[in-house]
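Key idea: predict the complex, not the pieces.
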Amino acid sequence: MKFKYTITGIDCPNCAAKLASLMEKLDGVASAGINFLAERLTVESELPEAELLPALTAEAKKFSRGIEIEK
Amino acid sequence: MKRLLHIYEREPVRIVLGLSLFVAALVTDGLVGDNAALPIYLLALIASGALVFIDAVRGILRLDFLDEKFLMSIASVGAMIIGERAEGVAVMLFYLVGEYFEHRAVRRSRASIKSLMDIRPDTARVLLDGVEYERDAEEVSVGSIIVIRPGERCPIDAVVIEGRAELDTSALTGESLPRTAEAGSEIQSGTVVLDGVLTARTVRLAEESAAARVLELVENAQEHKSREESFITSFSRVYTPIVTVLALLMAILPSAFGWLRPADAVYRALSFLVVSCPCALVISVPMAFFGGIGGAASTGILYKGGNVFSPISRLKAVVFDKTGTLTEAELRVDGIYPEGISEGELSRLTASLEQGSNHPLASALSRLDPSAPPARDIRELSGRGVTGTVGEDSVGVGNAALMRELGVNIPEGPTDGVLVAKNGVYVGRISLTDNIKSEAGEALTALRALGVTRTVILSGDSEGSVRGVAEALGVNEHHSSLLPEDKYRHLEKIISETDGTVAFVGDGINDSPCLARADVGIAMGEIGSDSAIEAADAVIMTDRLTALVRAVKIARRTLAIAKENIVFAIGIKLLVIVLAAFNLVGMWAAVFADVGVAVLAILNSMRALRAPSN
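Result:
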């Protein structure tokens, strides 16, 4: 399944790419991409959304606390 | 506590807090002495940089720390350690100020693109038993009756059932002339009703309507990276490690050989580290493409990605489909030549077969006899024509290939237009002419001025009509009577012969393979068939060919802006690196070369938002 979220609070495209590659390493996440300018996170995962979103948010917060992910 | 933290997270708060402590430290330093000032300097550094330090430490723990925050932390802490206390705090403050402006600039560009793209109303006035209700557009089912009042945007694609009004379609098509809508016209979502009240029946869901699909295309476009964007990303990947090693060498070698005091060598190495941060570079290029895609969309040109800009800016050959692209989709009947039957019967048979078809010829032909009974067993044969049954007679309407397929003998003479056979016997011919689009000639002249050396028409129509259009417009080559697969073959040949980019421009009907095969596939007309949009690299929402010229100009300008940003960012950085190496500028200049350059590059990118006029 492909999920699309709005992601805000990232500082630069470089950081966005790094966070995306960290998210890709999460269990159950097949691929993750962050578009810095469009503030969009696209994730492919077999996890149900109820598990995926908290996992992504936790990873983002670990990266930098100002980052928010919303549906 | 949590609220305090939230307030502290705001950049201006950190800047003001850090700045006040910094001033206090400077004053103490001057009045009392540096020992007394040290704790205040430290406090100022922590107040301004705490969040930056935390992120930098996190990066180190991830073993992935070559980012801006790490570099700034190292620089400011390093400066403190070698005794340049004021400088250490100043670097952090200056960085925060730069970040603040950078974030503001990014936010503003995002907002201006969002407002350009704000073409989809959230609500619709739904008419139920004579009463209007305001509903969420997303919840309106197909076939609902909606009302659109003057000044409002149509929320959902719909067909007018009552009323008459002028429409402004510019948000969707870039077309500035208003269009008239009356009962029977389809209006697309995103269109503004200028005067009059329209009552219309929705034909799609809001999310499948034109405005939503345009937005979807523009949003997805951000994901197709241009070569320039990928270059910048891979560049920063090899660049950062090199820079770090160089900085280490700069800190160690001069002191090892006794050229500089260790503290001075470290200071220069730190300036070098700060200036070398790749973030400014990495942000400035995608920003230009972001602006270019947004600006183009506001004039009705939708690029599927930043990767289209470079090929379209180097167009060498343009291959056109004829009907609907160079000529109006509607043809005009200019001659009826019956053979053995009356003119009236020929018209009636033809009109019967063409009534249900959406082929470009069909509407002109079916108007020949509006009262003709619809045919049965209609089969459309791609590139050849239509067959069907009218009354007891089996009828074929199409080109010479169809006649051969039906085993019909065609008499000597012209075969342009459509040929008609009844029960296997030739009964006459109807010729049609093209209306060449009014601005087609102008567009072709402009394309040649932009460096296009070869223009080709590939058409399924007969030689006579294709040659006429080619000659009228000064098109170099034309190939007629082509089946879709022939078009594809011709296109492949042209691509192999051309040194440069080949574009295929078509209205999308039957053209998807060519749109996909060309270096740049451009679908023209409304946001019509899915397969065409899927296959194309760019979609032009208006029928005007001059938009093609504008598409090339926008691409060139966007690329120029992106290159300016690259040259400017790398140039300033190199300059400051050299100056810092010889100690001609301090760390302040280094911070400017990082965040200041980013802000300027973002502002420059916003020029890409304003699309050039023709």
